[in-house]
Amino acid sequence: MLVVDYTKDFVDGKLPVGEPAILLEEAICRITEQYVQDGDYVVMAVDLHEEGDTLHPESKLFPPHNIRGTEGRELYGKLAEVYEQHREQIYWMDKTRYSAFCGTNLEQKLRERGIQEIAIVGVCTDICVLHTAVDAYNKGYSITIYEDGVASFNPEGHAWALGHFRATLGANVTNSR
Ligand code: ZN
């Protein structure tokens, strides 16, 4: 189970989704705890940028966010407590691109465990969740997206991405309730 970018900067900080992301807190915490309790592999995929990194492609697209060592990179709300309570069972994985697979060892971690199905929650539906889901599809994973566990600053992009997950990536788009 992947929790993508549910950090302070992306919820209500430097690059905020705002209200739609704030409203995910309960569902993301509940879904994360459920997967931990079931003994599943849970990953916090967390964006990481370096101060003043002008060569990073996002520097031309977005204001600085999730800078190493800043509060903005902390998990938002109660998810921070959930993570602290289950540190041994949750893998904290820094990532530097939209996709949690890009430049990380996520695929090795999943293959080592024989994992073939991935569930995704977090933000933004139409950016980091989307790019992660596309990579998962191309690598042959089955995908579940919790529609009450993802959000975007862009309602149209959010709706489009949910349709894309379902119709083009063959994902199981479902509600956690
Ligand atoms: Zn970023």
How are the secondary structure elements laid out?
Blueprint: E1 2-4, H1 8-12, H2 19-22, H3 25-37, E2 42-47, H4 79-85, E3 90-95, H5 106-112, E4 117-123, H6 128-138, E5 142-151, H7 155-167, E6 172-174
The chain binds zinc ion.
Detailed description of the structure:
- The protein is an alpha/beta fold and 177 residues long.
- It has seven helices and six strands; from the N terminus they run βαααβαβαβαβαβ.
- Strands 3-2-1-4-5-6 form a six-stranded parallel β-sheet, sandwiched between helices.
- The mean pLDDT is 97.
- Bound molecules: zinc ion.
- The site of zinc ion (ZN) has 5 residues, from loops.
What is the compact description of this entry?
This protein has 177 residues and is of the alpha/beta class. The protein is 34% helix and 20% strand.
The spatial strand order of the largest sheet comes to 3-2-1-4-5-6
Could you give a short account of the major beta sheet? 6 strands, parallel
The poorly predicted ranges are none
Q: Give the proportion of residues in helices.
A: 25-40%
SSE class: alpha/beta
Query: If you compute it from the alpha carbons, what radius of gyration comes out, rounded to the nearest whole angstrom?
Result: 15 Å
Mean pLDDT reading: 97
Which oligomeric state applies?
single chain
SSE string, helix = H, strand = E? EHHHEHEHEHEHE
Strand proportion? 15-25%
| Distinct small molecules bound, one entry per kind | zinc ion
- Helix count, DSSP H or I runs of 4 or more residues: 7
**Span from first to last CA?**
17 Å
Sum up the overall morphology in one term: globular
The count of DSSP E runs of length 2 or more, i.e. the number of strands, is 6
